[in-house]
Amino acid sequence: MFSSISPETRIVIIDDIQTNLRLLESSVKAFGLRHIISFTDSAAGLEWVKSNPWDLLLLDLDMPPPNGFEILGHLRDRNRSRCPVIILTALDDPESRRRGLELGANDYLTKPVDLPELLLRMRSCLSLAHATASLEQLNQDLENKVRSRTAQLEESYRSAIRALGRAACYRDNDTGNHIMRIGESAAMVATTLGMPAAWCETIRLAAPMHDLGKIGISDDILLKQGPLTAEERSQMMEHPVIGYTILHEDPGTELSEMAAEIAYCHHEKWDGSGYPRGLAGEAIPLSARIVALCDVYDALRMDRPYKRAWDPDRAQAYIREQAGSHFDPALVIAMVACFPDLEALLAADQAYEERKRAT
Q1: What is the pTM of this model?
Q2: What is the mean pLDDT of each run of 10 residues along the chain (359 residues)?
Q3: Most CB atoms within 10 A, among 90, 309, 313, 319?
Q4: Candidates 2.30.30.140, 3.40.190.10, 3.40.50.2300, 3.90.1300.10; correct CATH number of 11-142?
């Protein structure tokens, strides 16, 4: 009768009458189920089922405290399909039956119990429990596969983001280290602000895309050594829109959406004097406000064809001076706390570049 049920299936019996326990044990064992745990002490039985895994509980109702109803109350949050309970009781009144079923029993049989019927109902409950356990395992396996595949796709997307960022910097005077520093420094500032860890990780990956739109600007303008004419500057100011158009082409992930808003808005200024839309204050996305600050500081601290790198004190003084005009004042306060770490990041990259040149 139980050929499809594992011999390791745990059957628990709680009944304060010893003869009832012996009869049930012998009947169940006759059909090949060997793992049976019995209790005449209902309190001990309750503690055991609360602390151990089991597959089916045969439960009497009329017992010294805790009685069967109380035990069912303690087990009301269990998975009823996975851990079924069959009531075996002399209480045959409709009120007791309703109460037992309302408290979560899967079945209700009255004593004296017809053993063949009991075994049939046990088989039904155990088959359901086995199917439920199999389904739970299948769902868990599927969830693991989905998580693994999602992680692979996210890593592929991140690789693509990094590659696009590198492509943008190769068309400018920037270095790969510069664009990656923007990601790291943006994450530092976001962390100092108290943003959630997942958000900080997203801006770390999205920030290097801020100048992607420069791939749509001609080399004559992008690589020009001297000052830009008014027309050339107007064309250069189109790169935020170009970057946004590229990154917003296929929105849908938090990373792509943040990268698009950063590319679009990182030249906006707190006082509204920036471009391309003249946004002001908190109308500028927080991610873009952070990247604008990090990008300017890093650019000030770098050598460019048209200028020498500013020293830390001068660059930091400029950032403070621009609070409330170019930059969000609250973000400037956060960046001031990050200055030592930003300088350490810059020094590490400069040392790395020097080692590369030496070899």
Answers
A1: 0.59
A2: 64 92 84 86 94 93 94 92 92 93 92 86 85 82 80 68 63 63 94 95 90 85 82 91 84 81 96 96 97 95 81 96 96 96 89 75
A3: 319
A4: 3.40.50.2300
